[in-house]
């Protein structure tokens, strides 16, 4: 007896990044624009502005950042169909990253959490990476007692750090040694970029009379950028080099294992499961 032909749905999960839709892109662009303005506006404010008032903006920036992060997550949920599984993975990775931060305690730039952000952003995509970076930095600040006016700037910088890994080319074609080398190179450069941004967050509030590399509100943009470069070379070059070196070392040594684990977890979670319909094979009596 031949059974009747019926339609069946079969899920085919794949280890692919969580995609960005138009609303997700708009939310990320908005939070990035606001963050960039928060970092750089003292450079363009003019000599008559009250630059020191910027120090009082951190609580408002923090509150606004939380709202925008919720907006990014909401846009990703509505456009990509992700739900509890993605939120659970976000929590696990953020907790892991926060736990890694106190290991080095920032000594000589030894901060192992950065390599995990690179690998997570690579596997799960730029939108997920941005939220993960910001949430991880928030959780680690609570864990280490590093809460202060610098925290929203750290959240933004780490969000961009992880998001950049998700924007790297060739996620479907570039694998193996070539992928590891690309991620290591990105981690090296991005580690310096993170340190530069954090320098920029605090540098405008140095007293210009105490140092020739301090921010001078009476100088033009070119002069202040020259001072800022000298400030970075004099104060944080060694620290940033240590962060970059440990990120590269951990990416090259632990990267294959972590990437495999993240891709396996993503495949099993099937955030955006593709559903196909087909007829079963006809069985002969």
From TrEMBL:
A Pfam family assignment: ECF_trnsprt
Keywords: Membrane, Transmembrane, Transmembrane helix
Top-level taxon in the UniProt lineage: Bacteria
Protein name: ABC transporter permease
Keyword Nucleotide-binding: no
MF-aspect GO terms: transmembrane transporter activity
InterPro entries: ECF_substrate-spec_UCP037395 (IPR017196), ECF_trnsprt_substrate-spec (IPR024529)
Organism of origin: Streptomyces flaveus
């Amino acid at each position: 007896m031949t059974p009747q032909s019926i339609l069946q749905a079969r899920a085919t999960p794949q280890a692919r990044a969580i995609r960005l839709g138009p609303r997700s892109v708009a939310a990320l662009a908005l939070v990035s624009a606001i963050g960039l303005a928060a970092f750089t506006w003292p450079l363009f404010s003019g000599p008559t502005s009250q630059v020191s008032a910027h120090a009082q903006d951190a609580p408002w920036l923090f509150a606004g950042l939380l709202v925008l992060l919720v907006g990014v997550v909401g846009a990703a949920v509505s456009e990509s169909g992700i739900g509890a599984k993605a939120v659970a993975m976000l929590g696990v990775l953020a907790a892991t990253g926060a736990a890694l931060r106190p290991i080095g305690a920032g000594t000589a730039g030894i901060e192992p959490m950065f390599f995990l952000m690179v690998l997570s952003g690579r596997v799960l995509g730029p939108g997920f990476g941005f939220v993960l970076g910001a949430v991880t930095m928030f959780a680690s600040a609570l864990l280490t007692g590093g809460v202060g006016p610098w925290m929203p700037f750290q959240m933004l910088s780490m969000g961009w750090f992880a998001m950049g890994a998700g924007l790297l080319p060739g996620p479907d074609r570039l694998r193996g040694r070539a992928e590891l080398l690309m991620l290591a190179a990105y981690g090296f450069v991005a580690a310096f970029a993170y340190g530069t941004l954090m320098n920029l967050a605090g540098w405008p509030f140095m007293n210009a009379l105490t140092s020739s590399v301090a921010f001078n509100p009476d100088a033009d943009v070119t002069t202040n950028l020259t001072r800022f470069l000298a400030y970075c070379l004099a104060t944080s070059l060694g620290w940033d080099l240590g962060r970059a070196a440990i990120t590269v070392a951990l990416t090259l040594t632990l990267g294959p294992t972590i990437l495999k684990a993240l891709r396996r977890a993503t495949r099993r979670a099937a955030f955006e499961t593709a559903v196909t319909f087909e007829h079963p094979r006809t069985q002969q009596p």
